[in-house]
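=== RUN LOG ===
request id: a7f3
mode: sequence -> structure
chains: 1
length: 276
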Amino acid sequence: MIEIKNLNFNYAKKKEPLFQDLDCILRPGSIVGLLGKNGAGKTTLLKLIIGLLTPTHGDVKIMGYEPSKREPSLLQDIYLVPEEFYIPGISIKNYIKANAGFYPRFDEALLQKLLNEFELPETKSLQKLSYGQKKKFLISFALSTKCRLLILDEPTNGLDIPSKAIFRRILAGSLDEDQVVVISTHQVKDVENLIDRILMLEKGKFIMQKDLFDISSQLSFSTAATPEGENVLYSEMVPGGYRVITPQTNGNSSVDIELLFNAVSNGTEKMKDYVQ
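=== RESULT ===
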């Protein structure tokens, strides 16, 4: 589905490259979490994946296509929900009428279901919606395109707590096996139960590429009264004690992605054997 090989990229006015020899393969049927600190290059990588930027060196292939060539046969199978967006001052109904035809797999019945879930009236002007309502509409439209590659950049920004719960439910229940969703976010807790593969960017490289199943079979995430202990790989103070990461000894456990991200990005020595 997505193949990134020896990817290098730098902006024209900057001497230092942003990415150096990135390699990655993402397969259909997965929801991928793209994580990194501010300035790590997450949005730039998303733009390279969908062809809004061209690699300095190396290759990006989406379903065998080079996205930077902007071929219609690929563009009809990609949809991006950006963090910042512009929506014209027309009704939801007219927006759908004007744009749904660009996506051959568009599912009108699914869209109606999602609009009802989010309580969005078709006759209302998009410009009169709040930021959160606009975001809910774009998410609904994106899922209804049934594109095989969906890119969601900070999708839960602007959503209230009930809407975040609806977002998680509809995303989990609306995908087909031939689709890939890439979610770039700082709000890890909002999507923690959706993600099944993690990509972590740090200083122009992936410092982790792993399925959550593999992580949960290797590491245990729990709360303890003390951060001390021979097996403690990483710890953080929380109300009532400490969140700790230890080697897995009892099968699988739920992955605390935020705790994992902090442990890996801080370069904790004890975590090195579990990163790659």
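=== NOTES ===
The mean pLDDT is 89.
The first strand starts at residue 2 and ends at 9.
=== END ===
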